[in-house]
Known about the structure:
The chain is built from three helices and twelve strands, in the order βββββαββββββαβα. By secondary structure, the protein is an alpha+beta fold.
Amino acid sequence: MFTGIVEELGEIVAIEHLGDASRFQVRGPVVTEGAKHGDSIAVNGVCLTVVDITEDAEGTRFSADVMAETLNRSSLSALDIGSRVNLERPMALGGRLGGHIVQGHVDGTGTIVDRKLSEHWEIVKISLPAELSRYVVEKGSITVDGISLTVVDAGPDYFTVSLIPTTLALTTLGVKQAGDPVNLEVDVLAKYVERLLGRDNGTQEKEITA
């Protein structure tokens, strides 16, 4: 489990295409500290499994395999060598939940539609698939490229977020522009509530019919 608090900006240093999968090498000295084979690291909000850790003159990097399903459902397929990525290690048991509960399971991709500058922050409008809009509410939480953010406004096919200078400086949202894709993960609690209410309604309908 993650919290959506980005620990560092990493860099894609190599991509090996393997037919129905790809192997990414990502430089990230902070998140690789103490990491080992089999550990999880979130890359732009996608939970990946560490294959190996290597070091070179420019720092520590880790490798992770990305299967076709993940490439098709996330924006990782748009990454290239030199791309900057948001990195986060899983939350330690008993640690602070600084953002919200993030699984690292991308629900879909959106596109940055517009950016509006203000004196001390920036409003970013992001499109989202219509089937995800029911999980996005004003002042609720959403994960964008692995960043836990608060929804300012929620529309039928878009939402807006307000970014403070720290977020702009320390994450990929500081450099992404209109037209760029982003990974989206909606609040998992909303999905569980929907599922439970659906089951209750189904049970009640059967009892009434009987």
